[in-house]
Amino acid sequence: MRPWLALCLTLLALPLRAETVTVAAAANLKFALEQIATDFEHSSGHKLRLSFGSSGNFATQLSHGAPFELFLSADEAYVLRLRQQGITDNDGVVYAYGRLALVAAKDSPLQLDDNLDGLKQLLTSGQLQRFAIANPELAPYGERARTLLEQKGLWQALQPKLVLGENVSQAAQFALGGSAQGGIVALSLSQAPAFKQRARVLALPLSSHAPLAQRMVLLPGAGRGAQAFYAYLQSEPARSTFADFGFALPEQP
Amino acid sequence: MDWQALTLSVKLALVTLLILLPLATLAARWLAFSRFRGRSMVEALMLVPLVLPPTVVGYYLLVGFGNQSLLGSWLKDWFGLELVFHFSGLVLASVLVNIPFALQPLQRAFEAIPKEVRDAAACCGMPALKIFWRIELPMIVPGLLTALVLCFSHVLGEFGVVLMMGGNIAGETKTVSIAIYDNVQAFNFDAAGIMSLLLLLFAIAALAITTSLSRRLGGQDGDHR
User: Fold this and answer.
1) Which of A14, A65, A194 is opposite residue B84, by nearest beta carbon?
2) Which of A109, A201, B132, B180 has its CA 20 to 30 A from that of A168?
3) Average pLDDT over residues B3-9
4) InterPro entries in the record, alphabetically (chain B) (predicted)?
């Protein structure tokens, strides 16, 4: 049994956590934030550990004590709710405004237009099998997509055709998957090269949905690295990357 | 290819086995040899994780051990122990979920030991501990191996529990299954494909090893020479 003991001790001795900044970020930030993070790591020497998921899930996990130092939400509501619960001691700051995009795989029959007429047409002609959005209960981008579809009077008719992603990344992947003809996802995701190769994208006008003010907040116990990254995200290099990925920007303070 | 996630998964599987196998061996022996009222109740209880969806286990761990729960905050205040969103929490979850996978083969192995062999050893004045060490343990090796391979493979594939209470933190709770899921969402089908293929090959290898071992070691009625 000696070798087992040795193995046991070796495993215990492995460091479980290097000193790095843990960041919880909304799924729509995946590509933009990875680029910003690389630049930040080079310029500051801090290491970042990014986790992506739905804002709703992260908010729930944070209220149960998830060990993140910085939370970048896709919507203000989750950050403000954490404040109400007393998890954080400030409201954080808006770092970007998100936009919706109508997307379809290159070989999809869906015509893209601002008014969703193409979608309506495909639906009435019975050619639409599946249409993807993020889960409106969990993900702000899903909630905005639902509101938009309700405004256009498509929500009821679309019900049996909808596939819901657990977060907006998964919705994007569903939208381009074999069985769906399209979807409404975050514009920021559709700007990634991996996405553009496969899809046609139409940025929906800002006026077509309530603004998605994306808010971030530092959590109690955030270290120096997290604070530096928080400041960097509001600086010019980061802002220009956000803009490249289709985000609108808040006024400079 | 996410090596960090793969090593984390392997580490999780090894730690789980180190904790679970000794405990399961003792429990299996007790269940196999002792007759008491309510034994079938205990056996049924041990099978619960087999029929309970992993997400449900994850939910109860999240709510039961989170910062908002009495137990969670008590553990944190007194022992500095945080389970949810930490590796230790995944270990706890894996141990719980894998109880039936370890217990079943071991219990069958103990039950297969002929009573005469143990009686003979006891008659000759062999102390109980020595009987366990020299006679029983060598005879349950096939069961032990089956339990080991089953649990190891099962931990590698765990998803629901980890997603619920892990928080998807790289190097801490991001296991290989979660990494595959993430890569598919990010349109990295190459990385997801490689990792999936690796797990597929591992599963085939694990099955091949278990069947060949149980054929070579099992089947004979305790005639170990």
Assistant:
1) A65
2) A109
3) 93
4) MetI-like, MetI-like_sf, ModB_ABC
